[in-house]
Amino acid sequence: MSDATELPKKEEKLEVTPEPEEQSDESSEDEAVGETEMDFLRNLFSSTLGLGSTEKVLDELTLEGVARYIKSGKCKNILCLVGAGISTSAGIPDFRSPGTGLYANLQKYDLPYPEAIFQIDYFKKHPEPFFALAKELYPGQFKPTICHYFIKMLKDKGILRRCYTQNIDTLERVAGLEGDDLIEAHGTFYTSHCVSFCCRKEYNLDWMKEKIFSDAIPKCDKCSSLVKPDIVFFGENLPVRFFTSMKMDFPRCDLLIVMGTSLQVQPFASLVGRVSKSCPRVLINMEKAGQADPVLGLLGFGGGMDFDSDKAYRDVAHISTCDDGCLAFAELLGWKEELQELVKQEHARIDSQDEREKESKESAAMASSASVEPQPKAEE
Ligand SMILES: [Zn+2]
Fold it and tell me: Where is there biased composition of kind Low complexity (predicted)?
């Protein structure tokens, strides 16, 4: 929920809860952002001066070529960059498509302008529209897609370094990725925090769910301030972990898989340029994306995808839905049946869990109505 204008600047205090266990060996926030700038300069110089190896790793610029590379066993640090396109088949509307997506359905909330619903200052004064929308879009009403389970398989095979997602639907977690496997660049519904700087008490998903579904505006039980899911609103910074992990992950990446994103939102979009020059990059999307602007390319601002030029040597575009692309990929890897079985099992598990929750709610409701109006017991 952040755009190009909201890249954290050195002067700004990053509004996030530190995660000490993950950052004990990391530098400070300021240094992390400073490093980002250094990386940028390093990349700029290396592309301008033609430094860095452009070794051809793939034998063919196709999904087959990428599958052969994975099967060769040389690929152990895969990064996935994913966006809204991986969740559309789960039924989640795309937040960023004007007209077709979410913004079109916001009229009923009487907002001054649609984006206000995700603007932190507006939210602090008028939280109602956001929570009404959150109820409609509540994570957990949806099941992860084939694509989500494909990423889970990469983890299970021990070759996923991390998945960077722009989505806030938590479907990566539902599919079995854990905190350390994930960078939720635009935050998550999974945890929530009190908005008061002095308090910042954390709340879990169940707590927030209860509030959202009882149409109550979530208030902190310690200080009565608003409680907000940890999704990144306009006017807020990206999580610190995004910057610290990026610095560690991208230089080590040996295959970048980009799925379901048109790579138009910064700083997420610039991540494709952060892998080494020999690192193959595959895009599975409904359209080509991330290509370098030809003029900027001439000026030496490289890093964009190059699928088609004479110089193309590492970028592969597979134009399809993310689910179809992942099935095709899995087939080439010899994992197709395993993937389909995983999806079947997990969806059945989620369905039966939903069924059990429904039943326990119904019986709780019956029990409470029974206590109000005791039913006469049958004589024995
Ligand atoms: Zn509080």
Answer: 363-373
